[in-house]
Amino acid sequence: MWAWQALLRISAQQHPQSGYAALDGTFFDRGHASARYLTRSNQTVETMKVITLTDTESLAVLDIQCHAQWCHDTKAGPQAVHVPPDDLHTVAAANGFQDWHTEYEFYSLGVEPSIHYRGSSINAISNNAPIRERGYTQHWMAETSYSSVKRSLGDAERAQAWYREFREIVLMFAISNIEQLCDPL
Fold it and tell me: Which of 143, 167, 148 is CA-nearest to residue 157?
């Protein structure tokens, strides 16, 4: 897996880095596996959760976290921010990533989080206004990268072993990074 992660990082380093990234999650379907295989391997999970860290200017995917057991976004988000280059300044994320533990971890890594607060209380509204001004509106860029990968390479995994499914997802995003170099927007 380390070789595939290195390929993803090298493909992302070929793009200009803006220092601003978007953190978001999506699901890839793994229901393609035959019923016999699922019964034999005692697996019931039909989707794989994928959390990516995407540069907002170049749409290059900087890091990926894949989870077969769906851990909460507040636990998986900081794992994706540990690996990127040193020039990452701000991470914009949806309110599913909002937790004081997560924000503390981002600050300890030297990254400023732009995460919307949950709810519609006066406190949440007053905290969300400056967050929107710091670039929170760019978090949709991660969804754009998902859309391009799922349209060009499909939204289902073809591998049957867990470790191969993780490799396949990382390879999908690395190919997407390379395709963006060859065919800029």
Answer: 167
Measured distance CA(50)–CA(28) in Å, rounded: 7
Spell 67-96 as b/e; 16+ CB within 10 A means b. Answer: beeeeebbebbbebbeebeeebebbbbbeb
Instruction: Compute how many other C-beta atoms are within 10 angstroms of the C-beta atom of residue 185.
Output: 7
**Spelled out in words, what is the top-level CATH class assigned to the domain 2-180?**
alpha beta
Taking the CA atoms of the chain, what radius of gyration do you get in angstroms? 17
Pairing of strands 47-55, 20-29: antiparallel
Q: Are 59 and 180 in contact (CB under 8 A)?
A: yes
Q: Each residue of 25-64: pLDDT tens digit? A: 888 877 665 566 666 666 666 778 888 888 888 888 988 8
Q: Where are the domains of the chain?
A: 2-180
Distance of alpha carbon 79 from alpha carbon 65, whole angstroms: 7
Residue 108's CB is within 10 A of a number of other CB atoms, namely: 9
Q: Is the pLDDT of residue 162 over 80?
A: no
Greatest C-alpha distance within the chain: 54
| CA 103-27-125 angle, 5° bins | 35
Structure tokens at 14: 């070929």
Q: Which pTM value belongs to this model?
A: 0.79
C-alpha distances (whole Å) from 138 to each of 41, 79, 128 are 41, 20, 14
